[in-house]
Structures are given as structure tokens and as C-alpha cells.
């Protein structure tokens, strides 16, 4: 597929109009070679990939955006559709190709591509097909952008982040899974809705697997700086543990509900991944619950497993894991979640 980007060349002879339109001022120096130029590549032009791309563009997070997909016609259509919005967006060079060379020099590579489940297919067989797909995706990304950070969004995200790490040969801090960043946003929304406050004033994490064995860290939830559970206990306000469990179940089920209603999820994961991209590329050093190499944290020592933990993100990728105090029950559930992922992971041929 022919890739396309912005160009100042017009006419049959490729006349460059830049010099005709603009005349240099006297004693001008060339642009500084240290000027920072960001490039993001998104692999997979499906609903999730395009929601991420659109959100990245509207939030002005990159100077250059490259799209890669296996279906050239749809890919070109998506690229043109975004390019035609140029008058309404910050200036960004947008390119697309089935050739991974288009991703050359990327600061951040976001992988959303994944195989679709065939009717009657087991989850393990689907996962193995995704591993095979990643064997075609990760090596060329690494070859064209050896200093990039990999951000994996494809599901099951924890296992596939581990697969990407193994295939890339990168240090673990440069391979991150989107993990429970979105789950935690849903969690904060539900708590905020119960308390009638702004979700941005709620500090709450879902950790562990991005899936059924995820763990809600109730003990560390705060609203406006006030620890919720300890406040209720000091005020002798009764609450039922079953109510807390129901909120967590609602978080786990919320994606399934969206899928059952509209067929897929897209906008929330688009905002979630753009949020991570901002923290990484702009060195925000914010704490996000993302899938990281968890061995050695919170008693997880059974093997090399990626699960979501509160981690500080910056230009170097994962800068560190936050030492959040967990209750013994939360710690055990987190270890059980890691074990669940390892059991699946150990059945794969990588």
C-alpha cells in the first residue's frame, strides 16, 4: 500500500511551493537539532485503534502519527478520513501503510491488533493465535524503532504484554500493558456516582488481571484526600461488604455490558490509552495501574508475570512501582490473580 503524508510539492513536476510562499528572514539559523519531535505508531486500525488515534490527535500528543494494519483499503480510508480533518486539529503528519517501515523512529508503539475468536474456539487456542500474530508484529516494530516504548492494548493484555516483552528483547520498563487503567477509571466513576462527587477527586485502584480475577483496593480509596473506609469506621457509619463487592462486580461486567449493547468498546479505551501516552511522552511521572513485570512485588514470586500494579510512568517507561499498603486479603487476592495468569501463560508456546 502506498503511504501518504503531508507534502509541499504540487504540480506534475513536483514543484516545491515552500520557497515561493515563504522567504527566510535575515541572519536566520537552521532549526535546532535538539528540538523534540514525537512520533506515535498505532498497530491495528479497528474500532479500538482508531479511537486511540483520534483521541491522540485531538489532545495534541504527537507531531507524527503512523497507522499500520493488514487490510490496505480500510487503512487508507481511515488515514484519509483523519487527514481531511486537518483544518480542525493541531498540525500532525499522518501516515499509514501495511509496511512496518512507516513506524521508523517511533517514540511510542501502541499495539491494538488481535485475532478474532472463531465460533466454538477455546480461549487458549485464540490466545495461541494471538501469540502467532504478535510474532509478526513485535519484531518489525523493534527493528524500525529500537528505542521505542511498547504499549500493549490487545487482549488478554497481561499475557500478551509478557509475550511482547519476550519477543522484543527490551528491558522490562519499556514494555507496558494498558492493564487496569480503564478498569480503575470505571471504578472511580462508580464510587463518584455513589457519593455524588467528581470522579477526578476519587483516588482508587483496580489491580491484578485485566479480567475476572482483578482486585479492588478498597483499603486505599480516598475522596478529596479522605480515606473512605477508615472515615466510615471512625464515624461509626455502617457499610456492607457485599455492597463493595457489587461495585467491583459492576466494574468487571461493565465492558461486557457495553459490548452487548453496541458490539464493541472504543471511546473509553481510547481516552485511557491517550492518558497513558501523555504521561509517558511528556514525562508526567503520574501513577497509573498498568500491566508491568510484577515479580518481586507484593509477594509475587512464582514466575515472570505481567499484571497491573500502580506504577509511575515517564519518558523512560515504567519508572517504578508504588508501595501501596495492602491488607492481607488484598495481597492474597493479588497473588491469586498473578497465579491465574501464570497458569494460562505456561500453556503457551512462545
UniProtKB/TrEMBL annotation:
Pathway(s): Fermentation; pyruvate fermentation to lactate; (S)-lactate from pyruvate: step 1/1
SUPFAM superfamilies: LDH C-terminal domain-like, NAD(P)-binding Rossmann-fold domains
Any one GO molecular function term: L-lactate dehydrogenase (NAD+) activity
Reactions that this protein is recorded to catalyse: (S)-lactate + NAD(+) = pyruvate + NADH + H(+)
EC number in record: 1.1.1.27
Active site per database record: 210
Boundaries of every Lactate/malate dehydrogenase N-terminal domain copy: 39-177
NCBIfam families: L-LDH-NAD (TIGR01771)
UniProt xrefs under HAMAP family: Lactate_dehydrog (MF_00488)
Family statement: Belongs to the LDH/MDH superfamily. LDH family.
Protein's UniProt name: L-lactate dehydrogenase
Origin species: Flemingia macrophylla
Classification of source organism: Eukaryota, Viridiplantae, Streptophyta, Embryophyta, Tracheophyta
